Amino acid sequence: MFESLQDRLGSILNGLTGRGALSEADVSAALREVRRALLEADVALDVVRSFTEKVREKAVGAEIVKSIKPGQMVVKIVHDELIAMLGSEGVTIDLNAAAPVVIMMVGLQGSGKTTTTGKIAKRLTARDKKKVLMASLDTRRPAAQEQLRQLGVQTGVDTLPVIAGQSPTDIAARAVQAAKLGGHDIVILDTAGRTHIDEPLMIEMAEIKRKSNPHEILLVADALTGQDAVNLARNFDERVGITGLVLTRMDGDGRGGAALSMRAVTGKPIKLIGVGEKMDELEEFHPRRVADRILG
Ligand code: GDP
């Protein structure tokens, strides 16, 4: 594994103990290590730049006190700033709207959208005692609709029956209607992804949004997304307007830098994280834990 930031900064800064305040040069040397650590954690380059500038402002001129090693002091500044940027603890799905509350799931193909749809539906049903309806809007891959139906059977959550030949927007409208008639509290729309962002995808998402008036639009993204995270989040946010993020595969080896990148470019909260393939492997987002992980 990589050397921890604490160790790296220790070797650069700890000789300064008892020397007054951190100078520009000390801070610049430290920030080179911070930059390296963030890039190794897969934080996007632009975000690394703006982040290190914030840390610079806080660190230059900071008094070196005897009780704390200068390296530790900078690690603390970095850590606090990371937590501040990652956002607050415990922001979760907002259900505060007239029923049926529509939750629209968006993201690239393979990001974990369908799995997360099932996980959220299960949690809202089992824990919050809500009546949930799930609908697959992926008309390009019949297997996707079948996958959601199976998750519905497995979790005991209703799924909208498939009618061949309907467009994604028609299905969205039918899902909302069916939820009204069926007395469902919540409808989760599992939209189709693509392997990459393109114009037709964005147009389709905007149309579905217009037809279904979602209260939440959650961008599901793989935590292992590297430098592309910024582009992905910015595009979905500008074109569709997301209300939050869900990061999947946080159980993997990645350091989770995508969390910082996506949060930084959109300003939208990370609401949940996926930590496995099973239906109960969904957790709240804890900024402190992710900050620790990014720093290694
Ligand atoms: P979609 O194309 O966006 O709907 O993606 P899927 O929901 O089909 O997920 C793609 C693959 O990722 C499946 O094999 C899922 O089991 C897996 N997956 C989804 N979320 C997680 C997660 O949090 N952790 C792990 N390890 N695998 C996940």
UniProtKB/TrEMBL annotation:
<keyword id="KW-0547">Nucleotide-binding</keyword>
<feature type="binding site">
    <location>
        <begin position="190"/>
        <end position="194"/>
    </location>
    <ligand>
        <name>GTP</name>
    </ligand>
</feature>
<comment type="function">
    <text>Involved in targeting and insertion of nascent membrane proteins into the cytoplasmic membrane. Binds to the hydrophobic signal sequence of the ribosome-nascent chain (RNC) as it emerges from the ribosomes. The SRP-RNC complex is then targeted to the cytoplasmic membrane where it interacts with the SRP receptor FtsY. Interaction with FtsY leads to the transfer of the RNC complex to the Sec translocase for insertion into the membrane, the hydrolysis of GTP by both Ffh and FtsY, and the dissociation of the SRP-FtsY complex into the individual components.</text>
</comment>
<feature type="binding site">
    <location>
        <begin position="248"/>
        <end position="251"/>
    </location>
    <ligand>
        <name>GTP</name>
    </ligand>
</feature>
<protein>
    <recommendedName>
        <fullName>Signal recognition particle protein</fullName>
        <ecNumber>3.6.5.4</ecNumber>
    </recommendedName>
</protein>
<keyword id="KW-0963">Cytoplasm</keyword>
<keyword id="KW-0342">GTP-binding</keyword>
<keyword id="KW-0687">Ribonucleoprotein</keyword>
<keyword id="KW-0378">Hydrolase</keyword>
<comment type="similarity">
    <text>Belongs to the GTP-binding SRP family. SRP54 subfamily.</text>
</comment>
<keyword id="KW-0694">RNA-binding</keyword>
<keyword id="KW-0733">Signal recognition particle</keyword>
<comment type="subunit">
    <text>Part of the signal recognition particle protein translocation system, which is composed of SRP and FtsY. SRP is a ribonucleoprotein composed of Ffh and a 4.5S RNA molecule.</text>
</comment>
<feature type="binding site">
    <location>
        <begin position="107"/>
        <end position="114"/>
    </location>
    <ligand>
        <name>GTP</name>
    </ligand>
</feature>
<feature type="domain" description="SRP54-type proteins GTP-binding">
    <location>
        <begin position="269"/>
        <end position="282"/>
    </location>
</feature>
